[in-house]
């Protein structure tokens, strides 16, 4: 009992230190399973040091079974060290895999070897063996972000048992090893397994905190994008740049923020303002690369930033291209004082901001074009991203990050697909059916998740190669059914989207079991643009006009109420292949 209490006391000290370290951003970065040689060495080193700490805070049992409680700097003849290093080694293997577990075990085992004492060979070997086995064990739980404490408790039983067997194999002639094993066996098994379970629970808490941070980052990106609208509506890019730079610097509390066009710095806020001046040309390779590739770039090297001043305090940067249509018109640079300050949360926030700002610029540009050309109005209506749809979807994704991260990632991809398609609408008059199908499927995935308890949407389509139709011809019909046909339905709503052959044409239909159209509006929907956005009048009117203008009268919308309730909106596209 005394030995058990002493071991729990020492393990408690180590767990307190581990808890404090998990609050440090630099330590949190090793929880992101970045399997590279550099990160594996870092993992092994950190947990190897934890193993050494477990050795130093262990206890020594003399040949007369008395316990020495002082910190251990050496082990004499006839003395056996009972170390807590196996806790750190098991965690290293479970988190980092066999290589990290073996590396940490070698570090802790080497330290035990040089400490000496009875059983030094067994205590030295058990650490790397345990790390290797724990790493292979973790592969059975590869789908779990971190192993549950109950499973960790069960896994933690085996390393002390392995230690006992090695002591009996290698040191059976030293002192009365059987009696010694009887003394240390139960305390070591209990203390190690419970400590491992507590350690995994602590890691799970840290990861949940990080997921909460990701959700908050999504909401923050949403808020910033909304606050940026007044600046993005400015006619001057200089005014836009100054407003965005000040907004991001004040909201995100960064070291510095720079906004550029393709050639020069347009605005800078924060550290380094003395030499990151407005008008300075863009000279760095990574900035040019971001403009050319139109991709977000992260640099954690001061050499890549290539500042003209050696004493510049900015050591890391996230470069976000500002997109208008398909062209990068500028850059947003988020600067950090240290590379460790760039966490996955910051990367997620940067990606969201880049996408939102770029799409808002696109929306604003579309609104201005509408004032001058009616034809562009018809082609651009669906290119403008509905802010309410976007905000609701992002809020839903933010909530899912805590409940179902995999589903949240899938919806993020679908939202990107939906928005990317919308952005391209103004460039072409007709798109392949496959692209239109992807657009509709992305919208359906989002809506189906949002209204899972109310609406079931079925999409059925045959393959029609080389079939072209006006972009965003199907999605507004589905949206009409969701918002108007089934707007008041609490449960049991159903929408069917069918794309099927009909003689020398392809018939595309969207039907629902909702309220249907009123007799007054049935003959007018699609033919008249209502002043009020009721019964889907505006959306169906614009789709109908594009079909007629680009394909012909035979492609006009056909709208009817169904005998069993609900309505059907359909149209035909000529297809002779």
Core attributes:
577 residues; alpha+beta; 15 strands; five-stranded antiparallel β-sheet; five-stranded mixed β-sheet; 20 helices
Q: What topology, given as strand order, has the largest sheet?
A: 5-4-8-7-6
Average pLDDT, rounded to a whole number, is 81
Low-confidence stretches: 371-385
Rounded to the nearest angstrom, the distance between the terminal CA atoms is 85 Å
What does the model show?
Helices cover 55% and strands 14% of the residues. It is built from 20 helices and 15 strands. The termini are far apart. By secondary structure, it is an alpha+beta fold.
Short summary:
With 577 residues, this protein is an alpha+beta fold. It is built from 20 helices and 15 strands. It has helices spanning 2-22, 25-28, 37-56, 85-96, 98-115, 120-138, 149-155, 158-170, 177-232, 237-252, 285-293, 302-305, 344-370, 374-380, 387-403, 405-423, 433-450, 475-485, 519-522, 537-550; strands at residues 59-61, 67-68, 80-82, 256-260, 265-270, 297-299, 316-324, 327-336, 431-432, 455-461, 468-469, 493-502, 505-512, 558-561, 567-574.
């Amino acid at each position: 009992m005394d030995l058990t209490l002493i071991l729990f006391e020492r393990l408690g000290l180590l767990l307190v230190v581990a808890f404090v370290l998990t609050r440090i951003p630099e330590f949190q970065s090793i929880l992101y399973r970045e399997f590279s040689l550099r990160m594996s060495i870092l993992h092994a080193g950190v947990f190897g040091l934890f193993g050494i700490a477990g050795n130093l805070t262990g206890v020594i049992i003399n040949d007369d079974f008395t316990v020495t409680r002082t910190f251990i700097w050496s082990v004499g003849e006839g003395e056996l060290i009972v170390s807590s290093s196996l806790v750190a080694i098991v965690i290293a293997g479970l988190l980092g895999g066999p290589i990290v577990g073996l590396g940490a075990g070698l570090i802790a085992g080497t330290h035990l070897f040089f400490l000496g004492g009875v059983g030094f060979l067994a205590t030295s070997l058990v650490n790397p063996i345990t790390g290797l086995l724990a790493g292979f064990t973790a592969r059975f739980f590869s789908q779990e972000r971190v192993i549950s404490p109950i499973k960790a408790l069960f896994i933690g039983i085996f390393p002390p048992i392995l230690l006992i067997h090695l002591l009996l194999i290698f040191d059976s002639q030293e002192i009365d090893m059987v009696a010694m094993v009887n003394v240390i066996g139960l305390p070591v098994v209990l203390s190690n397994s419970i400590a491992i379970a507590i350690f995994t629970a602590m890691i799970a808490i840290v990861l949940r905190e990080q997921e909460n941070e990701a959700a908050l980052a999504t909401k923050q990106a949403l808020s910033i994008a909304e606050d940026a609208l007044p600046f993005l509506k400015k006619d001057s890019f200089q005014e836009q740049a100054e407003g965005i730079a000040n907004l991001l610097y004040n909201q995100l509390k960064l070291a510095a923020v720079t906004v550029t066009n393709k050639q020069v710095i347009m605005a800078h806020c924060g550290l380094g303002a003395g030499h990151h001046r407005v008008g300075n040309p863009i000279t760095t390779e990574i900035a040019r690369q971001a403009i050319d590739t139109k991709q977000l770039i992260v640099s954690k090297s001061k050499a890549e930033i290539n500042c003209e001043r050696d004493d510049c305090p900015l050591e890391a940067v996230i470069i976000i291209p500002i997109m208008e249509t398909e062209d990068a018109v500028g850059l947003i640079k988020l600067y950090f004082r240290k590379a460790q300050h760039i966490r996955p949360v910051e990367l997620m926030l940067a990606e969201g901001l880049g996408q939102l700002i770029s799409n808002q610029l696109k929306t604003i540009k579309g609104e201005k074009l509408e004032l001058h050309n009616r034809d562009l109005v018809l082609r651009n209506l669906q290119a403008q991203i509905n802010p309410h749809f976007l905000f609701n979807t992002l809020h839903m994704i933010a909530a899912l990050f805590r409940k179902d991260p995999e589903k949240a990632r899938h919806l993020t991809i679908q939202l990107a697909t939906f928005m990317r398609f919308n952005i391209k609408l103004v460039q072409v008059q007709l798109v392949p059916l496959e692209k239109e199908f992807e657009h509709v499927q992305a919208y359906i995935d989002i809506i189906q998740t949002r209204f899972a308890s109310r609406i079931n949407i079925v999409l059925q389509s045959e393959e029609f190669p080389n079939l072209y139709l006006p972009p965003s011809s199907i999605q507004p019909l589905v949206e009409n059914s969701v918002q108007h046909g089934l707007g008041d339905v609490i449960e049991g709503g159903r929408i069917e989207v069918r794309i099927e052959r009909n003689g020398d044409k392809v018939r595309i239909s969207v039907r629902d079991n909702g309220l249907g159209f009123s007799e007054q509006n049935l003959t007018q929907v699609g033919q008249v643009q209502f002043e009020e956005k009721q019964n889907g009048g505006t959306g169906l009117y614009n789709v109908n006009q594009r079909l007629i203008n680009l394909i012909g009268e035979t492609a006009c919308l056909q709208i009817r109420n169904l005998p069993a309730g609900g309505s059907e909106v359909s149209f035909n596209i000529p297809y002779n292949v």
